[in-house]
Amino acid sequence: IDDKVELIKYHESHPQLGVRKIAEKFSCGRTQVSTIIKNKESILDEWSHAAEEAKLTAKRLGDNEFQGSNGWLEKWRKRYNIKEMRVAGEDGDVNEVTLDSCQERVKELTKGYAPENVWNMDETGQFWKALPDKSLSEAGKRCRGGKKAKQRCT
Fold first, then answer.
1. Is residue 41 part of a domain?
2. Statement to judge: residues 85 and 57 lie in one domain
3. In this predicted model, which residue has the larger pLDDT, 39 or 153?
4. Is there a contact between 32 and 23 (Cβ–Cβ < 8 Å)?
5. Is 75 domain-assigned?
6. Which residues does the UniProt record annotate as the domain HTH psq-type (predicted)?
7. Looking at the DSSP assignment, which residues form a beta bridge with residue 83?
């Protein structure tokens, strides 16, 4: 996130430069630069929130002198090889026989409908007891969670 903030600040201080020049300077793609610039408000909010959380955590741990810096979080994540990963919850819980029979049943039920008219409606429920679907984990390791809570408001 620090790299994104740096790119945003650079873009704001060099408004005459185009996306291509900024992409060259930061060694990334033009699409990535455009997306960062387009989403700059949410990126800056996320960065500010992370810094505030770090200060609060330091105070809770008794470190009243912690100030943090623009690069502290990224350096810490790189030092300990920490990446944000999607949590795989129930990936091993599905019975293959059940899965095969369900797939055949779904094919029968949706025969005659265009694919864009077939919807998975369980994704519209609000899982009010659900855990986050992303977490920090050591790079290269699987990030596994438990079973997801099924209670929801629909």
1. yes
2. no
3. 39
4. yes
5. no
6. 3-46
7. 137
CATH number of the CATH domain containing 19: 1.10.10
Residue among 34, 7, 1, 8 nearest 19 (CA)? 34
Q: Which uninterrupted H or E stretch holds 32?
A: helix 30-38
Q: What is the pLDDT of residues 27-80, one digit of tens each?
A: 999 999 999 988 888 887 787 778 788 888 888 888 888 777 667 667 777 777
Domain membership of residue 97 as a residue range: 81-119+130-145
- Interatomic CA distance for residues 90 and 110, integer angstroms: 26
Residue 21's alpha-carbon distances to 33, 39, 41, in angstroms, are 10, 19, 22
Question: pTM above the 0.85 mark?
Answer: no
Overall number of domains in the chain: 2
| Three-state DSSP class for residue 144 | strand
Q: Tell me the Cα Rg of the chain.
A: 22
Integer Cα distance of 69 and 72 in angstroms:
5
135 — pLDDT class (breaks 50, 70, 90): low
Q: Same structural domain for residues 93 and 135?
A: yes
Q: How far apart are CA 71 and CA 25, in angstroms?
A: 19
User: According to the model, what pLDDT value does residue 133 have?
Assistant: 65
